[in-house]
UniProtKB/TrEMBL annotation:
SUPFAM superfamilies: Glyoxalase/Bleomycin resistance protein/Dihydroxybiphenyl dioxygenase (SSF54593)
Domain Glyoxalase-like residues, every copy: 18-125
Domain of life: Bacteria
The protein, known as: Glyoxalase-like domain-containing protein
Length: 131
């Protein structure tokens, strides 16, 4: 039996989406000592890099992403991602309780990779079944 990497409800990642990704990756490198790992992206205007940021031991710290492509409509804030077993069920419950769907990412089979929602108070977070 395969051991799960994450526990339900655990914050597993955070992304900052901004129109200043290049500048801010340098800011976080200087302030927190993070290292950058460029992640090649494409949109209708061509190719660009987003950045996975790593700590000195190469463990993940978070992502700094450009406000373009699939991230074009995301707010410029750190968005935490939380592990759930059932993305569709958690999304339905969120919407039933007054949440709002902000962004979705689906697999080729039409099921969700992850979603970003806004809670009834306006806070934004993501959840999915990250591996």
């Amino acid at each position: 039996m395969e051991e799960k990497k994450y526990k339900v409800g655990q914050i597993v990642w955070a992304d900052l989406t901004t129109n200043q990704a290049g500048t801010l990756k340098e800011f976080y490198k200087a302030v927190l000592g993070w290292q950058e790992y460029p992640v090649a992206m494409k949109d209708e205007d061509g190719g660009y890099d987003d950045y996975a940021m790593l700590m000195d031991d190469q463990s993940p710290a978070g992502g700094i992403c450009n406000s373009r492509g699939q991230n074009a409509n995301l707010p410029a804030t750190w968005i935490p991602y939380i592990y759930v077993e059932d993305v569709e069920g958690s999304l339905a419950k969120s919407l039933d309780l007054g949440g709002k769907l902000i962004h979705e990412s689906k697999k080729k089979d039409g099921t969700y990779n992850y979603v970003i929602v806004q809670d009834p108070a306006g806070a934004v977070f993501g959840f999915g079944k990250m591996q």
